[in-house]
Automatic annotation (TrEMBL):
It comes from the Bacteria. This is Uncharacterized protein. It comes from Cohnella abietis.
Length: 150
C-alpha cells in the first residue's frame, strides 16, 4: 500500500523527525462508536512496541483493536478460544463495521497488512528507523506498522 510508510511510524525516529503519539482516549471513543461491548484489556504502554492494543468483548466474540502509536492506522482482529484469529479483510471490515470511513482512522485490511514491504519504502524512513529495519528485517507492512522492536 503505497504512501503508508512514513518517517516516525516505527517509533524509532530521531528527535527532529519524531511524531507525537496518537491520543488513546480518541481511539477508545472510536472503538465505542463502532462496536458495542466491554473493554476487557488495554495495553497502551509503548515500551518495546509501537502500537496500542485494546481488547473488547461483545455478546458474540472478542475483538482486538490495534492503533499505530504515531499515525492513525488501525487493524482489527477477531479472537477465538481456539487461538485461530486473523485480521479482518477489507470485505469483512466493510460488512461488520460499515461506518469506519466516518472516522479519522485508516483501517487496514488483512490484504494491506500482508503486503510485502519494498526497499524503497524502508528508505523513506528516518535513519534510526532504517537501522532498526536492517536489524529486524521486516517483510510485511504489518511488521513495520505494528512492531515489537525493542
Amino acid at each position: 500500500m503505497k504512501g503508508l510508510i512514513k518517517r516516525g511510524i516505527t517509533g524509532f525516529a530521531t528527535e527532529q523527525n519524531g511524531v507525537d503519539p496518537q491520543d488513546v482516549k480518541s481511539f477508545l471513543s472510536f472503538i465505542h462508536a463502532i462496536v458495542k461491548g466491554q473493554v476487557e484489556w488495554k495495553d497502551v504502554d509503548i515500551v518495546g512496541k509501537n502500537y496500542y492494543w485494546i481488547l473488547v468483548s461483545t455478546d458474540q466474540q472478542q475483538i482486538s483493536f490495534f492503533l499505530n502509536a504515531y499515525f492513525p492506522l488501525v487493524a482489527i482482529r477477531i479472537e477465538s478460544p481456539k487461538s485461530e484469529f486473523g485480521y479482518l479483510t477489507a470485505v469483512e471490515l466493510e460488512e461488520l463495521f460499515p461506518k469506519l470511513s466516518q472516522y479519522n482512522y485508516q483501517v487496514l485490511g488483512k490484504e494491506d497488512l500482508e503486503e510485502e514491504i519494498l526497499r524503497d519504502e524502508i528508505e523513506q524512513l528516518d535513519e534510526m528507523e532504517i537501522k532498526q529495519a536492517e536489524y529486524w528485517k521486516p517483510r510485511t507492512i504489518e511488521e513495520i506498522v505494528f512492531n515489537n522492536w525493542d
